[in-house]
Amino acid sequence: MIKWTLLGLLAMVASILLLLYMPFVQDWAKDIVITEINKSTDMTISVERLRLTFPLDIAVDDAVVLDEQNDTMVSVGSVTIDISILPLFKGDVAIDGVSVENCRYQMGNRDSVLYLNAKVTQLAVRDASVSLAKSVVDIDDVELNGADIDLSLKNDTTEKTKELTDAIGWL
After folding, report:
1. pLDDT tens, 36-76?
2. What is the C-alpha separation between 30 and 9, in angstroms, rounded?
3. Is residue 61 within 8 Å of residue 48, measured between CB atoms?
4. Contacts of residue 97, Cβ cutoff 8 Å, sequence gap at least 6
5. How many of the other CB atoms lie within 10 Å of CB of 33?
6. Does residue 130 contact residue 137 with C-beta atoms inside 8 Å?
7. pTM over the 0.85 mark
8. Residue 122 backbone phi and psi in degrees, to 5
């Protein structure tokens, strides 16, 4: 009896894992997650295509993030991320590679104290790791092609009313 129960549980886990790699399930899950994020934040996110391939490679095509004023904060033609699975069990994220193509990022506006507008044709990151427990990011190699970056810093004339607090941990 215990043998059949364990076999049934193993089959159920294997079926769920198999379903995660099917495109129609990924489309369904992507739509649910994006709808919930859009409901719970002031931003609007859209993703045309998201794919998870074995073991843990992620591909995103035509993603856009709009801020609360419906201005484009981020737009990306494509992103691929190759993540190693075993370090995840230790609370670390080991990234073998990230590739970003046709990306645009905007923070603030021209009359803000800080304004950043970046257009990047191609960005590649190799051998990066993130320690969630230590809140540390380590990147070995970055390659940037076709970048147009506009950074504007102005004097902050607002009155300081709060004291700074310690940073909040990632976990």
Report:
1. 999 999 889 999 999 998 888 999 999 999 988 888 899 99
2. 26
3. yes
4. 80, 81, 82, 124, 125, 126, 127
5. 13
6. yes
7. no
8. -150, 135
